[in-house]
Amino acid sequence: MAAELVRGQNHPLTQTRLEIRVSAGRPVVAGATLADDRGTVRGADRIAHPGAPALPGLEVPRQAAADHRLAVDLDAMPQDVHRVTVLLALPVGVGGPTRFGAVAAPFVAVTGLDGTEEASYTITDLDTESAVVALELYRRQSAWKVRAIGQGYAEGLGALLADQGVPDAAALAVTIHEAVAQGLARAVAPPPPARTTDEAQIRAAATAGHASSALPPTPPPPRAGAAQGPIDYSHPGRQAPPPAAPQPAVPVAGDATGWSMEERLYNQVWGMFEDLARTTAAYRSAVDFADARMEQELDSVLSDPRSRIGGQGDAAREAATAKHGALVDRAREALDRDLAQLVAESEVVEPALPAAYAGWDNPCWHAYRSPMETPMAIRLGDLRLPESESVGLRIPMLVRLPLERGLWVDAGASAADTLADADELRARAAHTAVVHAVRLLASYPAGDVSLHVIDPAGTAAGALAPLVDAGVLAGPPAGGAAGVAETLTRLTERVDLVQMAIRAGAADALPPDLDIAEQLLIVHDFPHGFDDRSVTRLRYLADEGPQVGVHLMLVADREDAAEYGPLLDPLWRSLLRVTPVPDDHLADPWVGHAWTYEPPTVPYGSAVLRQVLAEVARARRERGL
């Protein structure tokens, strides 16, 4: 089982190819140093950081982000490396927090490539520190161990590096922070040879917009080193203008860190999400600055009675308006440039996505075969911002597997501004749930997911027909109050059994007839057919089920359950809300944009769902299921 470490505690590692996952709540810089048997880092070439992210056996992200994944291969380390130290630092000069005491306690986990956690550590008791040594992997008698450190440095990254014996530590720290700042400023265009004061101010405002950071309940992964050629990383305030504009590189699918192409594409997609969030934040911040500047100039003019006489006031207003328009136009040019580059990247990435990440119109579904391994994530739909609608840019919404939270397909009027017919909205919600279920069945190896359905009144029979006809359900859809109670009781007992076995360390003592596959329960038209006991059991499954492989997909209108009042508030909060029609209810963790979620759509007249289900059924039959 995974070890939850405290400061100073160590734990043996059973694997040598690892991921170190960092979750900090706010953007932080992640890096690592390679030290000898005396703990000394011999030089800058033994430090992996955003400006130099790759070393033998080690790769770190290229940008500051709230969540990180560092790739470590201990077998590939040089023989003289005896210690790998993971360090975190707050970005400098970007307007964010300056001490770890002002942010949530960073969480660090060491996992295998399959996601199995070996050890974790929550770094507590930090206050004025702006850099911290999180943990270290060290070699002891040919075996590797992990130790929780949690040593903070109020003097910052330079002091941390100096403490490890790094030559010119202060200069190296400056270099690292500059590389981070360039990453955060990717939406800022290289400055022209001569720049006016106004343009410098608007670029400063755009950069400030990048620094304001906070989609889905599973925080999106960081831009894990994906280098996007067409987007310039230079910052006009930190380096001289280049002698000539660099030629944009051609976008490449999989241009991100990761052990496999699947992982690289996953990181690249979420990198595109982060890029769109930041360039939009830069544009909005620049427009806000231009608005505020024009208002300030007009107030200054109108406050002087002499300026209101004759044509002086009109001339001042025209000048302020023209200046405002010029500033907004420059900001729009930068936004349009970045959008064009992201569109070019999307056109390369989208066709390369594997089935679990691909849209239903992707040709990969025509050659679909049941997979042998579970993918990292699945696609639940698309995300867009108002600024990206004009170019048709949408970012796939990828959610990690196994699902950490259940899904709530909202059939309520709050998501139906474009639909006046409540019955049509409910029908779409049922269809959307089926589309999600088909993708889950198609993404897991045959037999690794058991699908259960509760449809108390049978109102989803039409939408459920593809699942029923293909024979991929664990049993007929449960109807009526008796069917609801029986299904919930069976799954609740399964959760209890598995939890008890895990706590007792006796997983091999589970009943031999217990279905060990992941369980997915679709509940349609909640709370119809539910009594108080069934509601309690449903809440229990939503809270405790995901930890032991029981997942919930609820199709419901919250207003239908209004009689329960606040009793069900924890249930709604525990589920990831998705909608059957586009709805702007998701916020990103960086800048808090309201993203429009678009549900997955199947091309009109396409038989792709039934074709995929037929392949799933065939693979299940081959396995005797």
Features:
625 residues, alpha+beta, 12-stranded mixed sheet, 5-stranded parallel sheet, 11 helices, 21 strands
Short synopsis of the structure:
The chain is of the alpha+beta class and 625 residues long.
What does this structure look like?
With 625 residues, this protein is of the alpha+beta class. The strands form 3 sheets. Strands 1, 2, 3, 4, 5, 6, 7, 8, 9, 10, 11 and 12 form a 12-stranded mixed beta sheet that branches. A 5-stranded parallel beta sheet has the order 16-17-18-15-19, with helices on both faces. A hairpin with a 2-residue loop joins strand 11 and strand 12. It is globular and about 75 Å long.
Structural class: alpha+beta
Count of helix runs: 11
**Molecular shape:** globular
Strand content: 15-25%
Helical amount: 25-40%
Biggest sheet architecture: 12 strands, mixed
Distance between the first and last residues' Cα: 31 Å
Radius of gyration based on Cα positions: 27 Å
In oligomeric terms, what are we looking at?
Answer: single chain
Contiguous runs where pLDDT drops below 50 for at least 5 residues: 186-214, 216-241
- Per DSSP E runs of 2 or more residues, the count of β-strands stands at 21
Query: Residue-averaged pLDDT, rounded?
Result: 84
